[in-house]
């Protein structure tokens, strides 16, 4: 019998929260005996990821998922067998009462943010607070054994291998976005927050001997790109060239298309959590713009991931990659850091593939959640 799941998502940072929960909901429906309701408080942000969405509907079906608008004036609703509060969002009090009123107590999970910090291994799966007799548990995605793993659809890496081995498919996909890639150009995607270090990076690529085609989907970094180009603004379809650097603005694409974009590129600069994980599955060298937190707590998360990610690299390549990521996240020193990374490009490429393979040997997040429920009952 299918197990009923309710996933609650409050949209905090544009697309990160809804990106993770939408991907998880679809995978639970497609690959496991689960019926999923996805409760979202901001359907406009959701619409960018799922253009078919009707933002005026309180309930609709999208790709097998029962999508519900999470209203401010909550109406009485029966609780599901498994309740996932994504990223510590606060459930409606009336829904918590419904959880407590069930004949069979539901499994209540707090799906937390992704981190490589050591302490999450000890906290993953532990009980958290209680509401009446309903116990909540911590569930941490992660990169290490003893965590909840990463979101990864069952056939994802097979599809990636087939796509990356098919230059015709790649060319047709890029042409669908209006991109004509020159054979000698390195293709880079840029999806980032605002960054003071961007001009430094763009300048060094423009002055390089290696041609670069930079693809910039609509997003927050676009204003910085426009300023470097001396333009008041940039729009989808704009193409500008400065020296060896061609800059092209892409539309905001849905999740499956973004995967293909990452798979096409030689290097991917990404932001947040969902794009960060997808760039790792692309098995290409990458650069992560981590979301800034108060008191610079995000830097501890950055360093924890770098420690894991670079562990098997040579000392020189490790220093170069760490220098690049730190420069990007501090907003300075990108020119020297980028030049330094080029000296180790073959190792960065090989390591990206090895890391993707290593992570794929662990259970994915959706499977780990289902197994946690089975163990719990």
UniProtKB/TrEMBL annotation:
Keywords: Elongation factor, Glycosyltransferase, Protein biosynthesis, Transferase. InterPro entries: EarP. Signal peptide: none annotated. It catalyses: dTDP-beta-L-rhamnose + L-arginyl-[protein] = N(omega)-(alpha-L-rhamnosyl)-L-arginyl-[protein] + dTDP + H(+). GO terms for molecular function: protein-arginine rhamnosyltransferase activity; translation elongation factor activity. Protein-arginine rhamnosyltransferase that catalyzes the transfer of a single rhamnose to elongation factor P (EF-P) on 'Lys-32', a modification required for EF-P-dependent rescue of polyproline stalled ribosomes. Belongs to the glycosyltransferase 104 family. This is Protein-arginine rhamnosyltransferase.
